[in-house]
Amino acid sequence: MRKLYVLLASIFICLTSVKAQIQTETGYPVVINQDTLLTFYTGQGLFSPAERAQAVTKRINTLINRIDFNPDSLILKNDSALSVITYQGQMVLAVNNRDAAITEFSRPQLASSYLAILKKQLGNLIDNNSIRQLITNVLEAVAVIVLLILLIWAVNRAFRWLKLKIIKAWESRLTKLAAKGAPVSYANRILPLINSLLRLVRFIIIILLVYLALPVLFFIFPSSKPYATLLLSYIVDPLKSILLAFIRYIPNLLTIAVIFTVTHYIVKLIKFIAREIEQGAFSINGFYPEWAMPTSNIIKVLLYAFMFVVIFPYLPGSDSKVFQGVTVFLGVLFSLGSSSAISNMVAGIVLTYMRPFKVGDRVKVGDITGDVIEKNILVTRLRTIKNEDITVPNSTILNGHTVNYTSTAKTLGLILNTTITIGYDAPWQQIHQLMISAAETTEGILAEPKPFVLQTALNDFNVSYQINAYTNLSNQMAGIYSRLHQNIQDKFNEAGVEIMSPHYSALRDGNHIQIPNDSLPDDYKTRGFHIKKEE
What we know:
Residues 417-499 form the Mechanosensitive ion channel MscS C-terminal domain. It holds the Pfam family MS_channel_3rd. Keywords: Cell membrane, Membrane, Signal, Transmembrane, Transmembrane helix. The chain is an alpha+beta fold. 56% of the residues lie in helices and 15% in strands. Among the domains are: 25-132, no CATH class; 356-403, SH3 type barrels; 414-519, Alpha-Beta Plaits (2-Layer Sandwich), CATH 3.30.70.100.
């Protein structure tokens, strides 16, 4: 029995010392709206006293910010180890035996006192702050709405000012164009488009302002804060995803930049070499200068195609089935819809290296004669002497025959020829001399090599004489032919030689010769019919 008393005395002394030690420790208060509700001197579980007070403060602040909070709904539950105060199933705070050990109360009694304090203090806080807080929230919402209205008004005024400025500047511009004689109808059609774009931009800005104002309004009232967060997430989350995707894509972007830069400078080097070859700075055996730039363009296309193949795996979404399917679909469409274009491209490449003509040459393609004004990989454009621009597909040129009047005009000379028929009664030596003399006096005909005449046919009633003369002005063929015909008429008229076909002589009465009167000799007599009278 004595030993039992000694044991109880020891336990009492230990508890007294623990209680004294706890009471000497620093307490950590739970402060709500600048009012201390509770003070914790001991920890609980893994929480220190400071962490425990901070957690309880956060829970109580969350409760009083709820619009449906009612302090009378706080409930106390006691079990063998803890006394827990809850609100709608959520724990607010817990009281343990160590909390009760530093007081004169038991754990259930201490928890009851905490519950009474919370109901009283929080009830007073809600009663004092609910109306004032509601008024404050309403005033803040009104301020946000007024600010939104002012911003919309400012945007409308700014765009109205901008529209007036644009119209005034546009009218001034139209006046200057009209004074210079330029057409202004196109400019008048552009102005409504600009006004429509301004209205669209203004509408987008106003919608954006309204959308950004809604989360601010929802955030003012505690019950609508989740909606504010949701609305902001619709903007923030996509921007965040885009930013993160861009950051993750930076290594691939650097790789693409390096590949593109290397390809770009290789293309520039090839273009520089091609330009030097074209200008004659240096030459390559068997490689003509006019091949330089087309070859450079072909190499450029091949290099950029190879570059795209290399960077394709680094493109965003390149491994996507949708991306690959769209790529295949576009490839099929291109291959099915561009067969004629591809044939013209191949023909253009072949014509480039065949060198049948170059820009500026006078050519004949089929029944079209004109000067080459443009050559590209798909078509060739000709301009006739009547200033008609005709576009000929390259495949048509490759499949037909082409006559080039310019290719040898500067070296061998282009031979122009025309034919006349003269009766058998005229000496051929005289005809040759007259035709050569007419050619030599024609502007644009070369003195060397000399013109020459060919007798191309002995017909029933006449002889065909063909004059052949050299020229290096292939682009002036029509004018040279016209002057040559004029000179032939003049020379024959001066010599009194009739160019009229003898066919006509068989039908006419045989009287007057068919040359101008000014070219007739003074002793000319009209021929008559020879009639022999027999006795």
